[in-house]
Amino acid sequence: MARFTLPRDIYFGRGSLEELKNLKGKKAVVVVGGGSMKRFGFLDKTVGYLEEAGMEVELIENVEPDPSVETVFKGAEAMRKFGPDVIVSIGGGSPIDAAKAMWVFYEHPELTFDDIKDPFTIPALRNKAIFVAIPSTSGTATEVTAFSVITDYEAGIKYPLADYNITPDIAIVDANIADTMPQTLVAHTGMDALTHAVEAYVSTVANDFTDPLALKAIKMVYEYLYKSFDGDSLAKEKIHYAQCLAGMAFSNALLGIVHSIAHKTGAVFDKGHIPHGCANAMYLPQVIRFNSKDERAANRYAEIAKYVGLKGESTEELINALIKSVNDCNEYLSIPTCIKDYGNGMVSEEEFLAKVDEIAINAIADACTGSNPRIPNQEEMVLILKSCYYGTPCKC
Ligand code: FE
User: Fold this and answer.
1) Interstrand relation of 27-32 and 56-60 (parallel, antiparallel or unpaired)
2) DSSP 3-state assignment of 134?
3) Among 56, 71, 192, 369, which is 20 to 30 Å from 276 by CA?
4) Ligand 1 centroid vs 199 CA: distance in angstroms?
5) What is the 140 CA–ligand 1 centroid distance (Å)?
6) CA 228 to ligand 1 centroid distance, Å
7) pLDDT score at 171
8) How far apart are CA 362 and CA 261, in angstroms?
9) pLDDT given at position 362
């Protein structure tokens, strides 16, 4: 038996934020990040529409990037005091992820993070509130997924919560809000979305329900990402939908080792962190090459290549065309090809080589590795990581 879960309603279209006016409820809490939603006026609009719907509104503001366990517990406590029957989260991945976890502890105050850290251990929700998610970036798709990442800074642990109970009830996918993204974020989040769709399509648990979503998302990224990067309004709207389709696919088909490696290289280097989407963009070509030694995955990559109109006589030629197209895309979007070239040599060869063995251990243990078409052993993972560092094709 397999399961396929999505939000009950997805409202989309420019201006669809207004749909909040038609929500039913008595009290709404709005969870938001550091200030861009306020600055661009979307927080005021959100509050205004909820008030028009007859609701009393309270805010939980200043959710930090990579939200902490403390932020989640504080938010859950505030929710318990206020007693909302509607939780609205608006912003990038962080406030939405934080709000999902707050929702769990609002409804189940007796739980700890330890109780829910394993996949599919979150008890039933929706006894107190429904959950509305409104993304301001075109990439994570947390508005439609069963995932939330919360960081325990004291213990140095990231909790990747995963359970269909935290899939939002309503997603509002309004490109007017995503227009606030700076150009670099358009590039990084766009490549994150492409990686979600490609990894979902070759995942070992990809299925008949997720495949069409993944393929359509990939096609839309190929058609619109350059134009979106260049500021075209329709293209921005299309990319906002494409990332959402990719999210529907990967929430149900899971991901692969591009994400495993991005998770474990994101914050491990001394001089700064590599943004998630940028990391995915650099690693995707290397992982396609590694996974293509698996026949099923090779055929699936070739299907993707054909579907987006790339040319090739054989599976191998189609895969090479796909890899080249991802590299071309990175070049257009000013994304470096490898870690060595990232941030003016931010990660020295010495530091990389000193850490590569441990990164490999952690990447293999990452939650995304299990659904990758080929499970690398330690030696292979080190070689993949080296290919990601030097930008040279993987030797395994
Ligand atoms: Fe991602």
Assistant:
1) parallel
2) strand
3) 71
4) 10
5) 6
6) 19
7) 98
8) 8
9) 93
- What's the predicted TM-score (pTM) here? 0.96
Section 80-86 average pLDDT: 98
Q: How far is the CA of 276 from the centre of ligand 1 (A)?
A: 7
CA of 213 to the centre of ligand 1 (A): 16
Asked if residue 199 lies in contact with residue 258, where contact means CB atoms within 8 angstroms, the answer is: yes
Question: With contact defined as beta carbons under 8 Å apart, do 94 and 64 qualify?
Answer: yes
**Residue 198 CB coordination number (10 Å):** 31
CA 261–ligand 1 middle distance (angstroms): 11
Q: How far does residue 56's CA lie from ligand 1's centre (Å)?
A: 35
Task: Specify which residues 32 forms β-bridges with.
Answer: 90
Report how far apart the first and last C-alpha atoms of the chain are (Å, whole number). Answer: 34
- Of the candidates 122, 270, 258, 260, which has an alpha carbon nearest to the alpha carbon of residue 201? 258
Distance 331 CA to ligand 1 centre (A): 20
- Can you tell me the distance from the alpha carbon of 207 to that of 245, in angstroms, rounded to the nearest whole number? 15
pLDDT at position 394, please? 84
DSSP conformational letter for 18:
G
Question: What are 280-322's pLDDT values in tens digits?
Answer: 999 999 999 999 999 999 999 999 999 999 999 999 999 999 9
Alpha-carbon distances of 84 from 97, 129, 137, 267, rounded to whole Å: 18, 6, 26, 35
Which band of pLDDT confidence, cut at 50, 70 and 90, is reported for residue 80?
very high
Distance 221 CA to ligand 1 centre (A): 15
Q: Give the position of tokens 């661009």.
A: 40
Ligand 1 centroid to residue 197 C-alpha, Å:
10
How many angstroms separate the alpha carbon of residue 259 from the centre of ligand 1? 6
Cα of 144 from ligand 1 centre, angstroms: 13
Structure tokens at 163: 């359970």
Write down the mean pLDDT value for the chain: 96
pLDDT at 223: 98
> SS3 for 333-374, per residue?
CCCCCCHHHCCCCCCCHHHHHHHHHHHHHHHHHCCCHHHCCC
- The answer to whether the CB of 17 falls within 8 A of the CB of 175 is no
Cα(57) to ligand 1 centroid in Å equals: 32
Residues 103-131 have a mean pLDDT of: 96
